[in-house]
Amino acid sequence: MSSYLTSFIHYVSETNPHQPEFLQAVREVAEDVIPYLEAHAPELVRQRLLERMIEPERTISFRVVWQDDSNAIHVNRGYRVQMNSALGPYKGGLRFSPTVNLSILKFLAFEQTFKNSLTGLPLGSAKGGADFNPKGKSDNEIMRFCQSFMAELCRHVGSETDVPAGDIGVGEREIGYMFGQYKRLQNNFTGVLTGKGTAWSGSFMRPEATGFGLLYFVERMLYETGGVLKGKTVAISGAGNVAYYAALKAIALGAKVITVSNSEGTIYDKNGFSLEKLDYVNSLNRNFGEYPKRYDAEYHPGQKPWRFACDIALPCATQNELDEHDAGMLLENGCICIAEGANMPCTEQAVKTILKSGILYAPGKAANAGGVAVSGLEMSQNRIGQQWTAEKVENRLKKIMHDIHDTCVHYGKDKHGAINYLKGANIGGFVKVAAAMKAQGLV
Ligand SMILES: NC(=O)C1=CN([C@@H]2O[C@H](COP(=O)(O)OP(=O)(O)OC[C@H]3O[C@@H](n4cnc5c(N)ncnc54)[C@H](O)[C@@H]3O)[C@@H](O)[C@H]2O)C=CC1
Ligand SMILES: O=C(O)CCC(=O)C(=O)O
After folding, report:
1. Residue 332: which CATH number?
2. ipTM exceeding cut-off 0.85 for this assembly
3. Domain containing residue 251
4. Is 91 one of the annotated binding-site residues?
5. Is 365 annotated in the active site?
6. Ligand 1 centroid from CA 237, angstroms
7. pLDDT at position 185, please?
8. Quick one: pLDDT at residue 1?
9. Which atom of ligand 1 sits closest to the CA of residue 318?
10. What pTM, to 2 d.p., does this model score?
11. How many domains does the chain have?
12. Does 231 map to a domain?
């Protein structure tokens, strides 16, 4: 480790105490970017570009007060971390979960900087949300929470300033309630959020984009090494937006999907899920134990998907859900590719184990960029007051994912031909933001 890397890691740890997820995300980038800077761009070290990139341009924290159906009053904490605006308006999702805190939102916003840069679109980076638990809440409670959340957030966002979207716990319903509140308060029908319904200026394919994009990326990685997706067995974690559409696309491309999961357990269907089976999973409202009553399958409470033999593993649930032990089991069982649908789902040690094994590994900042890419396309459509066909959007999504893949190969291939996609994504994402920041002076 170079002395600059050592002192940088020390500096970040000292200045961001009690933020383990943020530090994890920064270390993962610094270990690739600093050696690159030292070898190829010492001027950017002097400019302290990485030190500037890890500091959010602005962090907003606010009170969200709302009333439940029995008139009890609740207080939650809302946030928006506006990380970097060098390439465009701040852009990134909102997460509603009791686990939300500043460390998690800063790691997500930091990852978003690299991801959004990789898309090639004019997007800055941000992330936000609240420590609100949507589970078990009525539709009216969700609406009141979203309205209260947007009553404050509306001062800080705007179609050319900061454009939030969904993430865990925030889908089209929540985007609708927040959009309605913004429009009412600002008297302005504008593209302030993405992930909107297609009847009210949303883009076709935004719900599908992250999962579909993940599979386009995986297809390209396999192709690069002479393989194909057809006939492969795929283990997926999660059962939300990303997991569902990843499973659909994997099946459509001829793979067999054998698992989905939630935080309580995993459904293992050795015969493979179909569209009908996945829709049944959705209808179960988390009661996954019901699935084997209808289909020839197993439910494993308290278990993750990674113990089941598969060719391809797609963690699509949440951060740090796949640890070193899980990585070891996947490798022992012959897994040839791990691609992240979620943000930072593999622990630091898991990543090291996977990289050492030499199998294909795609970090979320590259492989799950399809969601924000189609959000970027939604912004373009809103600006020109048009709506493109699903086919046109999906073609653009596919091209963007292939271009991201090729950027990773460009920056991640070593002289022996081995491709480190993490290194490629880190350096490929960094160089563009760094050049823009340098050009814009000391900001
Ligand atoms: N929605 C999007 O467009 C994008 C989402 N992501 C990331 O993908 C991941 C999933 O997001 P969404 O699907 O949008 O959220 P979601 O709220 O639709 O689904 C999350 C799913 O993960 C499950 N889950 C949560 N914690 C879990 C755990 N510890 N173990 C197993 N399952 C667990 C939930 O039960 C749910 O099925 C997150 O890391 C998010 O940041 C990344 C890029 C874009
Ligand atoms: O679509 C967006 O703006 C954000 C998607 C997101 O939150 C992510 O890429 O993690």
Report:
1. 3.40.50.720
2. yes
3. 207-358
4. yes
5. no
6. 9
7. 98
8. 77
9. 39
10. 0.98
11. 3
12. yes
